[in-house]
Amino acid sequence: MSFFSNLHQKPILKILSLNSIHIFLKLVFGFITSNAIASYAGPVGMGLIGSFRSFLSLLEHIALLGFQNGIVTYLAPHPLGSAAYRKTVFTAGLVLFLSSLFVSFFCILGVDYLTHTVLHDQIFYRDIFYLLAILFPLYTGSSFLLALVNGLHYYKKVIQIQLLASCISLVLSLWLIVSFTTLGALVSLILVPVVLLFVLLLYCYRITLFNQVFSFQNFDFTLLKHFTSFALMALVSGVLGSYVLLQIRNEMIDVEGLFKSGIYEGLQRISSYYLIFISSILSLYFLPKLAQHVSKEKQQALVLDYIKHIIPLFGLGLVVLFFLRKEIIALVFSPDFHSMESLFFWQLLGDFLKAISLLFGYILIARKATQMFLVTELFSLFILYVLTHFLLLEEGLLGVVKAHAITYFIYLLVMLLVYKKGTK
Question: Residue 225: exposed, middle, or buried by beta-carbon count in 10 A (0-12, 13-18, 19+)?
Answer without folding.
Answer: exposed
